[in-house]
């Protein structure tokens, strides 16, 4: 701890020079050895940094003084001017902040003269050390240093070496070459050969990057190493290995690299889904169009079967896309069918169990009996992940073969129960294989509370379950829109289709022409807008990802010219929340879309406009 007061009698009894400096570098106190060292009485005078210390050292000492004023304990090597003959004396300067009421008001400075030694180090002109300070840098180096003699035995270690790697000099002196082999499991021969090359004078120094080193506790770390010669009487006397621990830096780089790979996979995944969406959209629309015009029941039945399979693929793609999409920090409410949310979560967990089955040799079957036609209004992304968490939480109590039950109960309280029969020996402390944004169970409950959703865990010797209780306002009766005509009727309209997929151009063009409309097809946004300026269109159906002008830009310009034109935006990309585009987008359909949804959507817009 920094002293609050200074007993000057104690400082006067010290053999080494000591002084107290104020924040303005004024000498508040100096003991007798301090005055004798500088051959003058400099009490109550300004500490003369430039003239007291050699030019090469004064910056280092000044910097350490500033650090001490900021509350740090500092130590450095320096050379002081001790006479008129320009002679210099190597010293160690230690500075300690003196505080009062938590504030540093002065600095205690100790000066310890160093004994002369013949050894000097030449660290490639990179060390901020005075040559005359000799090898005392071992005492102050933050980097672990070990010194090898010509017999390849360790003769000296820095203090930081023992603190960082846990080895003492006795540990490092147990046998010739044994040290290098024990420390550097994979690169010992390379390091020994390089040390010998420096001894022979064939190379001035050697650097190694990303070397694995083993600590006394068996932990592996990654270091950069520099090997420098130490001279005595102008001859190489020994070799210093200076190490820089970069383990944390490598871990950080590894995490960043993993994040980049995940981001890349995410981008590739979304692009892949976009391509599949377009392909599936063509198959789906072609199948539905052929169902309209075919007269043979066998062909119609076959097309309906294809359509059903396509819808299953569409659902899987929608689930994948939902989990790949980035979540914003703001949670927004949205209305979705409860069946869709439950099915999404169940399918995700089924896939997880299928992959997990090969690793853990266990089989879990999910029994999902949902038979209600209800919607929920909440943050449905969170609700999906909450259900996934509940199922994976319950799964840790399973045996080799188990059946998990997912049940929705409708009554005074609406809730979903996920339960499983407990296997013998199931450990309640098992690690949960999935969490929401790495939340702990208590944090998950807290997050659910924000939406008034209660998460209740129930445990008995026979069964373990998680109950998710919904607030009454969250569950809504699902409204069903019925129509005698499955596809509705749109006729005698000027319709513009902006799409770069040739097959989809043909399908939509044939569909609307068959209904009795005039259709213009454009492949890019610029051609479409030029055409619209010449001949206004009642309906503009545009893909989002077209060249020239995007579908959103085109729709905005169309509305500027004619507010009555209906704009329909199609997209195979995930556009997230499109509320901001409602001013100029009348209808948005994500690819793959159903012709039924497209026709019904347009018919509803026209009906609302006319009413």
Can you give a write-up of this model?
This protein has 611 residues and is an alpha+beta fold. The chain folds into five domains: 106 residues, Beta-Lactamase (2-Layer Sandwich); 126 residues, PAS domain (Beta-Lactamase, 2-Layer Sandwich); 70 residues; 144 residues, 2-Layer Sandwich (Heat Shock Protein 90); 117 residues, Response regulator (Rossmann fold, 3-Layer(aba) Sandwich), CATH 3.40.50. 38% of the residues lie in helices and 26% in strands. The strands form five sheets. Strands 6, 7, 8, 9, 10 and 11 form a six-stranded antiparallel beta sheet that branches. The chain has a five-stranded antiparallel beta sheet with strand order 2-1-5-4-3. The chain has a five-stranded mixed beta sheet with strand order 13-15-16-18-17. The chain is elongated, with a radius of gyration of 39 Å. About 6% of the residues have low confidence.
Attribute tags:
single chain; 611 residues; alpha+beta; Beta-Lactamase; 5 domains; six-stranded antiparallel beta sheet; five-stranded antiparallel beta sheet; elongated
CATH names the topology of the largest domain as Heat Shock Protein 90
- The count of helical stretches stands at 17
Calculate Rg over CA atoms: 39 Å
Give the termini distance in whole angstroms: 83 Å
Query: Main sheet, how many strands, which sense, barrel?
Result: 6 strands, antiparallel
- pLDDT < 50 stretches: 116-135, 428-434, 481-487
SS elements, strand count = 24
How big a fraction of the residues is strand? 25-35%
CATH architecture of the largest domain: 2-Layer Sandwich
Number of separate domains: 5
What does the overall shape look like?
Answer: elongated
Find the CATH superfamily of the largest domain: Histidine kinase-like ATPase, C-terminal domain
Report helical residue fraction.
25-40%
